[in-house]
Design a protein that fits this description.
The chain is α/β, with parallel strands linked by helices and 262 residues long. It is 40% helix and 21% strand. Strands 1, 2, 3, 4, 5, 6, 7, 8 and 9 form a nine-stranded mixed beta sheet that branches.
């Protein structure tokens, strides 16, 4: 069984060497880059990756473009800040030396945020469907940066972790949440979730973020991850508020909703 690695990139020179070094055993690496201005494409080619430069089509569309260019029997879909642990590398190689019983496999993802591996609050095991037979799974074309491949059929689970070096600093986290909240707001508008009434506005912009914080930080034991966990769950709840507030503002600007709020 041959293995292709599919990735999308944009200015990932800091992360890419570590990621590509962990998939040297793959038969093919396909990268669709969105006009990086740093050394991303140079680094990718140094690992013999096939690099394609394309305008960004949204996370789903861009990843589907990478999937379409893969020629291996199996595809491993990766983000540029994700690294295969030694155990996961061994697990994948062993699987592809047999006749896999499933056509898609879930992988546990471990998230490092603010320099700490998050073990609680819903951040571990953060299971992702990332390894699948070519043609067996595909992204939706939604703009969501958090989407996962859609697969209709039985799935398995691999041993080992996908190490996600997500947000080394608070500044970087807030920058990403600002951008992601805008993308998710557009998706909310497309789905009609625009807080048309005062009640839905308060529920989405205020109550939903508060409930999110309580659930993740207290019920799911996020407080056990120290000060880093507090910052993560506090500002994640702010991200939830931003998402719905931006959706309301977008809809208001386009005349789709009326609000009694001043």
């Amino acid at each position: 069984m041959t293995l292709s690695v599919a990735m999308i990139t944009m200015n990932e020179e800091a992360n890419l060497p570590r990621t590509l070094d962990s998939v040297r055993f793959a038969d093919e690496i396909v990268i669709v880059d969105s006009h990086s201005t740093d050394r991303t494409t140079e680094i990718a080619r140094s690992f013999s990756a096939k690099v394609f430069t394309e305008d960004f089509k949204g996370h789903g569309g861009q990843k589907n473009s990478a999937l379409d260019k893969c020629t291996g029997d199996w595809i491993l879909l990766l983000d540029a800040d994700e690294v295969l642990s030694p155990e996961l590398q061994t697990s994948i190689r062993a699987l592809l030396q047999t006749t896999p019983q499933c056509s898609a496999y879930w992988i546990n993802r471990s998230n490092q945020i603010f320099g700490r591996w998050m073990r609680h609050g819903g951040y571990y095991p953060d299971r992702k469907l990332r390894l699948f037979r070519r043609g067996a799974a595909r992204m939706t074309n939604e703009a969501s940066p958090h989407s996962t491949p859609f697969h209709d059929g039985p799935t398995g689970r691999l041993q080992g972790d996908l190490l996600h070096y997500a947000y080394p600093t608070l500044t970087l986290y807030l920058e990403h949440m600002q951008r992601y909240s805008t993308e998710m707001a557009r998706l909310a508008v497309a789905r009609g979730k625009v807080s048309r009434s005062v009640f839905s506005f308060v529920r989405n912009v205020v109550l939903n973020p508060v409930a999110t914080f309580i659930y993740n930080y207290i019920v799911r034991l996020g407080f056990l991850d120290g000060r880093e966990g507090l910052l993560l769950h506090l500002y994640h709840s702010v991200y939830v508020s931003w998402k719905y507030a931006k959706a309301w503002e977008m809809a208001k600007s386009s005349g789709e909703t009326q609000s009694a709020l001043p």
